Amino acid sequence: MSTEERLGTQERLVRSTQELLWERGYVGTSPKAILERAGVGQGSMYHHFSGKSALALAALRRTAQTMQQTAEECLGGPGTAYDRVAAYLTRERTVLRGCPIGRMTQDRDVVQNPELRTPLDQMFDWLRGRIADVLAEGQRRGELAAALDPVATAATVAAVVQGGYVLARAADDPAPFDAAVQGVLALLAAQVTSVGATGDRD
Amino acid sequence: MSTEERLGTQERLVRSTQELLWERGYVGTSPKAILERAGVGQGSMYHHFSGKSALALAALRRTAQTMQQTAEECLGGPGTAYDRVAAYLTRERTVLRGCPIGRMTQDRDVVQNPELRTPLDQMFDWLRGRIADVLAEGQRRGELAAALDPVATAATVAAVVQGGYVLARAADDPAPFDAAVQGVLALLAAQVTSVGATGDRD
DNA sequence: GTCTATATCAGGATAGAC
DNA sequence: GTCTATCCTGATATAGAC
């Protein structure tokens, strides 16, 4: 008995929806496709969820939550601020699949629906804030140049990842993603202070 | 008589398709919507184009061409390499609408169709190459640090724009786009050599 | 070249039996 | 809770008249 089969109906529906939204987007995902992948009947689906958008909302919340945890594992890890940002940028990714959250950003029905947009908004807002915190902490420790703007730089880092996916998918090749990441890491490395600097040590 | 009305049927169809692809993506755009916006009948449309994908191909080629021209106006302009990249990054944009080419990257049917993907691929390939050329030229002139990797940095610049759109649409606010651009410009500014440097002058 | 049928299938959901 | 039947609309295209 597979893991999938032992899960509850509701859980299987949410997971199917997560997968399909990632692969096909919101417009491209039909209730029929969801229930077929989940292996449940139509009546079953409409019993647990009011319809497509309710299913999508549950799926997006789940995906955003998972992505946040994954990012936190890198950004909350050990090392300097540069190390932690580098860990986030270079963590293993299935580049050509793109970002399951960033992708939804291109879906009209999602962006125009405040409820559906909220998980995306919160996720990216948290991400930029978290990266900015890491960078600001690096500055306080004297690791990074004081002139660096943590908030703007955090947006840049997050944008490089999302834009890297776009470039890679256009090329059908992960190379542009990797190049973009290496490019921003090199620029960031130039902001790393060479000496232990002015940090207070006991 | 409006400009639209005096155009030929074929031309009106292509323009309608360009608009709709930008707004709704490929899956979200129906032949019916195209012909209604163009103000032509169904028979007319299938006379000039074999179907939806042929129409999309014509539209994407046109859009990519226009975008390339727009980018060239900035990147081929006057000033230092930094100035020209900055001109590209900060040129006026309707940020919340996103990039009409980058958007298609999230459309399964487009990316999986080699013919439809080609215009996207060529456009971004050209863009990264053009930015890399500008940066390399800046290095030869002694404007930019020799250690900078023009190819990787070019990918970063292109990614920041595409990713900036994603962040802005998630937030329903252009601010993250602007922040990402300012962030990468500040990082790039740190690569500008302070002196006229080693350039040969007559 | 353009128009109006016509055809087929999928999307998205409701109804009511079990 | 789950199933099957049914409904209505739209997507995508073909046919053949004008």
UniProtKB/TrEMBL annotation, chains A, B:
DNA-binding region(s), residue ranges: 30-49
GO molecular-function terms, A-Z: DNA binding
InterPro entries: Homeodomain-like_sf, HTH_TetR, Tet_transcr_reg_TetR-rel_C_sf, TetR_C
Keywords, comma-separated and alphabetical: DNA-binding, Transcription, Transcription regulation
Residue stretches making up the HTH tetR-type domain: 7-67
Gene3D superfamilies (alphabetical): Tetracycline Repressor, domain 2
Pfam family, one: TetR_C_13
Signal peptide: none
Keyword Plastid in record: no
PANTHER family: HTH-TYPE TRANSCRIPTIONAL REGULATOR LMRA, TRANSCRIPTIONAL REGULATORY PROTEIN
Protein name (Swiss-Prot/TrEMBL): TetR family transcriptional regulator
Organism listed in the record: Streptomyces lydicus
Upper taxonomic lineage: Bacteria, Bacillati, Actinomycetota, Actinomycetes, Kitasatosporales
